[in-house]
Specification:
The chain has no helices and 27 strands. By secondary structure, the protein is mostly beta strands. Helix content is 0%, strand content 55%. The chain folds into two domains: 94 residues, Golgi alpha-mannosidase II (Immunoglobulin-like), CATH 2.60.40; 152 residues, Immunoglobulin-like, CATH 2.60.40. 26% of the residues are buried. Strands 1-2-3-8-5-6-9-10-26-11-12 form an eleven-stranded antiparallel beta sheet, with no helix packed on it. The chain has a five-stranded antiparallel beta sheet with strand order 13-14-20-16-17, with no helix packed on it. It has a five-stranded antiparallel beta sheet with strand order 18-19-15-25-27, with no helix packed on it.
């Protein structure tokens, strides 16, 4: 095992090396982006003379590093929130097909004489690692020698704009107002609210959470580890949206909860207020209420336009490599967008 302690939300993984090849499975147990540092150390089984090594991500998307590595170097693997990724390490001379590095891509054609990709973004320095395999490149309605291939920087379009998260504490409840615009090429998204207790609230009774989207109450999907964290999510379609999250806590043995009969109207939209019921409330929390951190995310499913590039081969393709199954449909990418974060205390 490599990396840190997943129980502390640190990146971790597993690595295996034999000779000049290796495989790395990496995991980020946090919603926040993180980096896993991996040493390409001969002590882990890598040939100490290994050089010109390709680092290729084969899951969840395809990507190849423009940089070639050698034994003894350190590799930084950037991971999105909750991402699981698989990387292969091998000598560039062992590649059986053209290696277009620095782009997120998928293969759309493989034949004896032609190899074609569709890529969705391109970083600075994107290049062909093994141009000797290619006779002609076909890109942007032009054909040219591989030495003349130049791919401009290309970013994925922004799926979210005008995002804001604001706290509005009322007498008997905490309210969070969320505003955002969700744009194409995002086809759908999940609004995800992460609630984590702090200090003396850890391990205690969970707060009650109610959500509204554009004035209508929505059903929440809840995943939680009681006393440590809770995810509250619901689906979103593209458009301009306003959401209100109401977080309530018990007061002197009374639990605050939403009731449709107690709605109020504000700016033409109906929002909930809190009513009371009476389960048990821990004595030590009566004076302080519940406190913790709330972070708000949009998990977007995007289908951006891609650019096609094909390679007429100078030599035939080698045996087709087995690949992990796609986690999403062809052409779809996932992206996490953080809208905001707040420290809250439920009023008593």
């Amino acid at each position: 095992m490599i990396g840190g302690d997943p129980g502390e939300s640190l990146t971790y993984g597993y690595a295996h090396f034999a000779g000049k090849r290796g495989i790395i499975a990496a995991r980020n147990p946090s919603i926040e982006p993180q980096t896993l540092k991996v040493s390409l150390s001969p002590s882990m089984g890598l040939d100490p003379k290994a050089s010109s090594l390709v680092v290729e991500r084969v899951y969840p998307t395809r990507w190849i590093s423009p940089k070639l590595y050698k034994a003894g170097l350190n590799l930084d693997i950037k991971l999105q929130g909750y991402e699981t990724a698989v990387y292969e390490i091998y000598p560039v001379a062992a590649a059986s097909r053209p290696l277009l590095a620095g782009v997120t891509f998928e293969v759309i054609k493989e034949s004896e004489s032609n190899y074609a990709l569709k890529f969705y973004d391109a970083q600075k320095g994107a290049r062909l690692l093994n141009p000797e395999m290619v006779r002609t490149v076909n890109y942007g309605s032009k054909s040219f020698r591989p030495s003349n291939l130049s791919i401009p920087v290309r970013h994925l379009p922004e799926a979210v704009s005008h995002g804001s998260v604001q706290l509005s504490s009322q007498e008997k409840q905490t309210e969070i107002d969320i505003k955002f615009d969700l744009h194409q090429p995002a086809e759908s998204a999940t609004l995800a609210i992460l609630i984590e207790p702090a200090g003396e609230s850890e391990g205690e009774i969970e707060p009650e959470v109610t959500a509204f989207l554009d004035g209508e109450k929505v059903e929440l999907k809840v995943e939680q580890q009681k006393g440590r964290w809770g995810w509250y999510t619901f689906k979103i379609r593209p458009g301009k949206h306003t959401s209100r999250i109401i977080i309530t806590q018990e007061e002197n043995g009374d639990r605050l909860h939403y009731s449709k009969e107690n709605e109020i109207e504000e700016n033409g939209k109906k929002w909930g207020q809190a009513l009371f019921s009476r389960p048990h409330f821990p004595e030590e929390q009566k004076e302080i209420g519940w406190r913790g951190k709330v972070s708000v995310w949009l998990v977007c499913s995007q289908k951006p336009d891609g650019m096609e590039v094909s390679f007429d081969l100078a030599q035939g393709l080698g045996k087709k490599r087995p690949m992990p199954p796609r986690p999403w449909p062809s052409g779809e990418l996932r992206r996490n967008v953080k809208l905001g974060e707040l420290e809250i205390r439920t009023p008593l």
